[in-house]
Design brief:
Layout lengths: L4 E4 L4 E4 L8 E5 L10 H19 L4 E5 L6 H9 L4 H18 L15 H13 L3 E3 L5 E3 L15 H7 L17 E6 L16 E3 L1 H13 L5 E5 L3 H16 L7 E4 L2 E3 L14 H6 L4 H8 L8 E3 L11 H24 L7 H5 L8 H8 L4 H14 L7 H18 L15 H15 L3 H13 L2 E5 L4 E5 L2
Parallel strand pairs: 3-4, 3-9, 9-10, 11-12
Antiparallel strand pairs: 1-2, 5-6, 6-7, 7-8, 13-14
Helix pairs in contact: 1-14, 2-3, 4-6, 6-7, 9-10, 10-14, 12-13, 12-14, 15-16
Bound molecules: adenosine monophosphate (AMP) and zinc ion.
Zinc ion binds next to loops.
Amino acid sequence: MPKMRLFDTMSREVRELTPLDGRVFRFYCCGPTVYGPAHIGNFRTFVLQDVFRRTLELSGMPTFHVRNLTDVDDKTIRDSQAGGRTLKEFTDFWRDRFQEDCAKLNLLTPHIEPSAVEHIPHQVEMIRDLMEKGHAYASDDGSVYFKVSSFESYGRLSRLDQRELREGASGSVSDDEYEKDSVCDFALWKARRDEDGDNYWDSPWGQGRPGWHLECSAMCREYLGDTFDLHSGGVDLVFPHHENEIAQSEACTGHRMAGHWFHLTHLLVDGGKMSKSAGNFYTLSQLIEAGFSPAELRYALISANYRQPLNFVAKDTAGSETFPALLAARQALQRLAKFSQSLVDASGLTEPLTYDDALAVTGQGSFGGAFEALLNDLNTPDALGRVFSAMKAVQVEALSADVAAQELKGFHLIMEALGLVLPATGGPVAEAPGALVQLAADRWAAKQAKNWAESDRLRDEISAAGWEIKDTKEGYELCPKS
Ligand code: AMP
Ligand code: ZN
């Protein structure tokens, strides 16, 4: 099987992935900050990291996947106190919610999911080491800073030069960090402040808490050693988070931190940045409540290349929140499910296939091209396109049971690589999302009131979202357009 190739932010090249130890590919993903529900942008990153892991494993490369939980930072401390809960109660609650969402979205569980709070001694140890080596200094208030000028290659990942650093980085500096020697030095340890409440720990420099960047460096080192194969996160983490992680880790260990840097471009909603104030901030639970399945969201999230922004279309052309992106995903999944069922029928293999079955598949038949698209820089839209082309080319009715079984296994392998759980076929008609159900009810009311113009307008709006209304003797039915 050819090896997987992936774009590396550090070298700006697509490079082959080979594990340093020759056996297991060991990688770290920056995990969620557990202070609220993860949004669908976060899940674009986590879902694509999951497709990445599945592709490696299904290509025959075992993995070791570490993804942390950021449970101590400004936001978790601020919001736990605002809600009158201990930091642990608060972050445990949001951790559980996150893990439930991950399970619904069919994400493989990381081999280790460490929490920052549980690794404070490791962080203190690293700070001590950095101070001894002259890379860090304590300020009078008991905070400790990393001395950026002591680490020559600072800025290599994000291609910052020293000039940009001096003039441009001040935006990321918080007011309480005024005792730094240089505006670009960043906190490794933050001295205790009144607003931290009970959330402080002892250290040789006084009470306080670790800096966010250091948490990841310490957890990487604990579970993956000084050098590991790949480090990943959303593109917003390139600077300063990953740049600072590299500086801390490499200054401390004297070794290169990671062999490969994998960054995922952000998700936009209706062409804009997602934010609560813009009213375009979506979580998985909200979409489930609106009548969609996690598999539909997963499909929409993998439908664009990870190196391009993904514009998640929530509103249709009439401006109603009907989620055309998810309706399109629903139709695609139904086509995949029907095709899968036709292969099951032709092959006589009725036992459901599992992830382990996919790991054991040797030949991928007509679906080999789709898997190659994933091996080639995780090109998920190309893989999906090739799946649909192969489906058209395969004449299921003409296949012998043996060949149908082979094709089914190849098809199953690519579905597992993408992590798509297909809906049952032949079941009840797809459920319409809540917004459309409302539009259909409004249209019925308009019709009863003989307001024909309004009734036609609503019918058109429903049609633009991919659904149609069929009037019956008893009332009406709302069905996906065939
Ligand atoms: P956070 O919980 O903010 O620490 O973010 C968790 C992960 O989601 C990180 O890898 C972020 O880079 C990533 N992320 C944040 N916003 C988006 C977005 N709009 N699209 C894709 N990934 C995102
Ligand atoms: Zn991190």
